[in-house]
Design a protein that fits this description.
This protein is an alpha/beta fold and 383 residues long. The chain is built from 11 helices and 18 strands. Bound molecules: iron/sulfur cluster.
Length: 383
């Protein structure tokens, strides 16, 4: 525990010494910082077991003390990946860790535990700092963005001196005030997702939803332990597009899940045809050590999985291409990633396509008139 102290007046000294005592009794591991830190002898005399004492505004010394006494736990999954650096004009904003679902193909909950949401005040402060540092696009991520706040009963926090609930809709409203692009990822299709579509229609956040549907047949969804039914999804897509015609929907699917029959796979292809999703990723099912789905009978043969994946991608490629074709002749706002390459509201970095043109500077917003569409990318001219 870090105790921030004040040592200007006697009453404050007494109060600070009392706070250190309370922290020691409650936690046992205490680093003292702040103004009273300059009176090391007094602190040591009263509380000899504090771990470290630093002076005011000495964040590096506080962090050094914290790391010395609380080494970062080894995480075999992330320690090997290293730190991912994004260009200065966009940034990932992590709002929660862990997940309350138990999808049968996934081991994330067993690795990271149940959902733990970051307090909204802290998330908003980080977002505001990023924007002040020059970030033009915030990518909201977590394992389950639409569940944000459920673990802390949507607790009210504070941002800019006013109360804000720890809840996806209020987070989106607040982020929408920052004047930058806000893009939502990993949105589980709960009913309250409907509430953020009007914010997209009003231009407060980007009209982009990354919703992992995973499959479309009730039996496979049940085996996957996912909610939602295909008809409801289709109805909701229709309604979302009615409210926000500019909406881009990205999704991911798994083909060749244990027990998936040819008829069920064909139903999935039919769903794709009806849903007309803009961007789609597809994975052939592969067992992960420790996943419940490994116990399911009727594994699909590897060559069948590969063939289904190919058919799935061919079906979707035609849909994506025809959707991109409809953008020819339109002028789109893009965020330039590098000279000649940018992204429109429909394109998340690294996973979607791009818009290509001549010129532009990284980090600026420009308008591009689209002359031609490829299978994934658009080509046009800067205005
Ligand atoms: S697939 Fe996503 S929603 Fe399902 S358990 Fe894993 S992290 Fe949670």
């Amino acid at each position: 525990m870090i105790v921030n102290t004040c040592g200007f007046i006697d009453a404050a000294v007494e109060e600070s010494l009392g706070a250190i005592g309370e922290a020691l009794a409650g936690n046992g591991k205490v680093v003292v910082t702040g103004c009273l830190g300059v009176k090391q002898d007094l602190i040591k005399k009263n509380h000899p077991s504090v771990l470290a004492i630093t002076g005011p505004h000495d964040t590096p010394a506080v962090m050094k003390a914290v790391h010395a006494h609380l080494p970062k736990p080894h995480d075999p999954y992330t320690d090997l990946i290293g730190v991912k650096l994004t260009p200065p004009h966009y940034a990932y904003l992590k709002i929660a860790e862990g997940c309350n679902h138990r999808c049968s193909f996934c081991i994330i909950p067993s690795m990271r535990g149940d959902l733990v949401s970051r307090p909204i005040g802290e998330v908003m402060q980080e977002a505001e700092n990023l924007v002040k540092a020059g970030v033009k696009e915030l990518l909201v991520i977590s394992q389950d963005t639409s569940a944000y706040g459920v673990d802390i009963k949507y607790r009210t926090g504070f941002w800019r001196g006013r109360p804000v609930k720890t809840r996806m809709t209020q987070l989106c409203e607040s982020l929408g005030e920052l004047g930058v692009w806000v893009r939502l990822h990993y949105v589980y299709p709960y009913p309250h997702v409907d509430d953020v579509i009007p914010l997209m229609a009003e231009g407060r956040i980007l009209p982009y939803l990354d919703v992992p549907f995973q499959h479309a047949t009730p039996r496979i969804l049940k085996l996957m332990r996912r909610p939602a039914s295909a008809e409801k999804v289709l109805q909701r897509l229709e309604e979302w597009r009615r409210i926000c015609p500019e909406l881009t929907v990205r999704s991911t699917f798994i083909v060749g899940f244990p027990g998936e029959t040819e008829a069920e796979f064909s139903e999935l292809l039919r769903f794709l045809g009806e849903a007309q999703l803009d961007r789609v990723g597809c994975f052939a099912y592969s067992p992960v050590d420790g996943a419940a789905a490994n116990e399911l009978p009727d594994a699909v043969a590897e060559e069948v999985k590969a063939f289904r994946k190919e058919r799935f991608m061919l079906t979707q490629a035609k849909i994506s291409a025809s959707k991109l074709q409809r953008k020819v002749g339109r002028t789109l706002r893009v965020l330039v990633d590098a000279p000649g390459v940018g992204r429109s509201s429909a394109d998340a970095p690294e996973i979607d396509g791009v818009v290509r043109f001549k010129g532009g500077k990284a980090g600026e917003f420009r308008d591009v008139t689209v002359d031609r569409a490829g299978e994934h990318d658009l080509y046009g001219r800067l205005q």
